[in-house]
Write a structure and sequence with these properties.
It is a single chain. With 149 residues, the protein is mainly α. The protein is elongated and about 55 Å long.
Length: 149
């Protein structure tokens, strides 16, 4: 990075490279990751969208696109974000990022049963007795308590 004038130099080089090869999904993805790391969510979303449209089956591109949309939307869900995570889950019912984000969305909407369903699927994927499993169990318990109050 230092030899390229830091992140900004690397961003400029990737932008120039994409002018020559605009169909490089990896180029758009890498540029989007750099832009996201700089908090430039609006432009990052554009490049994640291009990357995922070029390589439609690339889960990393889809997950990062959805996360960038969520960040750009001030960590709030909207129909496009929900649909992107639901599409990921349709492709792979055990897609951890999608399960986690959809559980969080359902919980925020006070759809506790739905959130619990997502978290139970996540719990089956977690290592038994892990910190991750414990956190998921606590989330399930909290949702159950909220549902009953």
């Amino acid at each position: 990075l230092q030899s390229m004038d830091g992140k900004q130099g690397l961003i400029k080089r990737l932008e120039e490279r994409l002018k020559v090869d605009p169909d490089s999904a990896q180029g758009h993805y890498l540029l989007a990751k750099l832009l996201a790391s700089e908090g430039q969510w609006q432009v990052a979303v554009v490049h994640f969208r291009v990357a995922k449209s070029i390589e439609r089956d690339n889960v990393n591109y889809q997950v990062n696109f959805a996360h960038a949309l969520w960040q750009q939307n001030d960590n709030q869900f909207n129909d496009e974000i929900r649909q992107t995570f639901q599409d990921l889950l349709h492709q792979n019912p055990e897609q951890v990022d999608a399960l986690n984000m959809l559980a969080m969305d359902a919980y925020q909407q006070k759809q506790y049963k739905k959130a619990i369903t997502y978290w139970r699927k996540l719990l089956r994927l977690a290592s038994p007795n892990s910190q991750e499993a414990q956190i998921i169990e606590e989330a399930i318990q909290k949702a159950q308590n909220d549902m009953n109050s």
